[in-house]
Give the backbone structure.
Amino acid sequence: MAGPVAYGIDFGTTNSAIAVAYDDGMTEVIGTPDELTESLIYLHRNANRLVGQDAIRAYLTTGNSRTMCSRCELVDWVKGEPITDCRTCKSGGACFDARLIAQAKGELASPDFHGTHSWSLDFEIEDLVSIVLSRMKKAADRELGTTIDRVTVGHPVRFAGAEGAGWRDRQGLGENRLRAAAQRAGFTEHVSLMAESKAAVAVDGVDDGILLCLDFGGGTFDVAVVDVHGNRSQVLALNGVSIGGEEFDAKMFDVFVAPTLGLDAEFTLPNGEKRRLPNELSGKLRSLSGVNDLMSKNLAAGVNGYLAGMGNDAVLRDISAIVTGGSSWPLFKAIKRAKHDLSTSDVATIDVRSAELTFAIPVTRSAFDAAIAQDLREVELCIEDALEDADVVPEDVRFVAKTGGSSLIPAFIALVDEQFPDAEHTQMDPFTSVVSGLARHAYEVWAS
Ligand SMILES: Nc1ncnc2c1ncn2[C@@H]1O[C@H](COP(=O)(O)OP(=O)(O)OP(=O)(O)O)[C@@H](O)[C@H]1O
Ligand SMILES: [Mg+2]
């Protein structure tokens, strides 16, 4: 009977997955296909750390509770002054007892982001990522009844933010941090990295010719141009751009939710001056990771206090509900659900029903398509650049294989159909084709 020898891990911006490689070269994704592990990390001041659905469940019950700095066991108060290692402590302050971290992958290549701090603890970005990797490792080890400490982890061709001048340094930083996170997660023997779009190139039904592999995920779009000859394939070019489904969710917030909540409202100060919400606040409200940032900095509370009673308190109440009232998760979940619905129907509803925020906004596919049109143009250019790098003209492309959740968006499918009208188009499993390829690569590394 074949024995397990190595893992492949796809640490995604939105979803993560793990697959095992056996010593006969076969691979298997661990967990059922409808059990995607969302790349969400729950941190609690009591040292509890959770991932995916467990993280969401815990956050929904504990996300609102706070501890006043005046009563915090991490602080000694001497003559009204705090003595503590906690960098968020302040006189009259408070902090949330739990945090939900989203899109940690998006920070891996950011030289200015080293991590986050809460409850007198520093969480390095490598630690945050390793929480996800180690949960998946433990679950897989448990299922297989053994401990596997070799892994191939996928990385985007260009991490989010690793574009423009000096991109190689930032890309290198992202890859080094990812490798360190895997080591911290217990992969002591062997950690190898592989480009995600390259991992997905083993496409059924492809014979000799140029294959274009397109991985459109939550954070990035990645392309591999591959020359396939029998069972050998040579990667001619890789390219990528930081555009993905999480940005589309944010665009849906901008186009549909922000106007409904009145986020462009004017506030009239006692001296008659007009104010709008500061950009720092409204810019962060458009994503779960931005809202988490606002929560940890307590920025919204300050702004709300300052603008309260100046004509638009309903707007401030809704912002509080999102930032401090636990409505952020239901809101972004509802946006995502509506976006997914638009992949199969022309109309959908952003339906939010939380204790403090309730609304239903009808949305249309054509309005969504208009909101993401510029992003899709960049995706198209990214493909063109990859072909140019590979010295391949579009007419030479025989096969186009698509993967990643955002590859299900009809406007993207239409764009690729138009770009390559004569090629054979394949939709691979959007959530498992990359991780299976990573496990295959892990096997090759292990067997060599
Ligand atoms: N039916 C659908 N229609 C449109 N978008 C979808 C659909 N299903 C999933 N998505 C989107 O796909 C994205 C997740 O895809 P995927 O799991 O491939 O990304 P990821 O691997 O986590 O991200 P990345 O590879 O960019 O780091 C999310 O933004 C999700 O909303
Ligand atoms: Mg992915």
Observations:
- Residues 40-101 form one domain.
- The two ends are 21 Å apart (CA to CA).
- The mean pLDDT is 92.
